[in-house]
Structures are given as C-alpha cells and as structure tokens.
Amino acid sequence: MRIKVAIFEDDTVRLKGLQLLLNTADGFTCAGAFDNATDVIKKIVISEPDVVIMDIGLPAVNGIDAVKEIKREFPYLPVLMQTVFDKDDKIFESIMAGATGYLLKKTS
User: Fold this and answer.
1) Rounded Cα distance, 2 and 23, in Å
2) CB of 58 within 8 A of CB of 81?
3) Cα separation, 11 vs 69, whole angstroms
4) 3-state SS, residue 14
C-alpha cells in the first residue's frame, strides 16, 4: 500500500523535486502537485491524499488559511506545513490552524 501525498508549493523547482522524490520513494506516491491553494478543497477531493504537505507562504490563499479550510472539511487528514520561516509565530499559527506538524525547508 502506498501513502498518497498532495503537495502545495509555489516554488516550481521545489514542487517538481518533491513530486519526483515521492514518486520514486518506496511506499509513497504523489497524488497531486499544486502551485497554489486556491480552491484547496476541490484539489483535495480530486487528488484524494492520505497526507498533505502545505507551504505556509503561498500566493492568494496562504498555507495557514488553507489548513483551516482543509480541517473544516477533512478533520482527520494530516497536514504537514513546509516553511522557510523558523519563527515561532508562523509555526504556532499553523499548529493552531490544525496542522499536524511542520518541516523547515532548509532541513536536509
């Protein structure tokens, strides 16, 4: 059984890299790769992920607001925030919005 992951990331190189990594890793597959969180619920319904990786700093609809929307419709869907921010306020805000956890982009 493969874990299906949806990625929301506005950096095209990073988005493609994560997609490639997931599609070549044992036990994982990329269910969807999106460069924004506009219509996030529709994108979740279409991709049917088991977990979401969400960038905090997305254009139009930021990742924190997207997590709030996801959690209203899919309260048990795990969402991991991915961010360049290492400031406690953005991370704390993400967790308070319903994120399961977070990953710093600079982590190897």
Assistant:
1) 10
2) no
3) 22
4) helix
8: left (phi over 0), alpha (psi -120 to 50) or beta: beta
Report which of 22, 24, 11, 12 is spatially closest to residue 50, judged by C-alpha positions: 22
> Could you give the 3-state DSSP secondary structure of residue 99?
coil
The C-alpha atoms of residue 1 and residue 103 are separated, in whole angstroms, by 24
Amino acid, res. 15: L
Q: What is the pTM of this model?
A: 0.93
Per residue in 60-86, pLDDT (tens digit) is 999 999 999 999 999 999 999 998 766
**Of 29, 33, 24, 32, nearest in space to 3 by CA:** 29
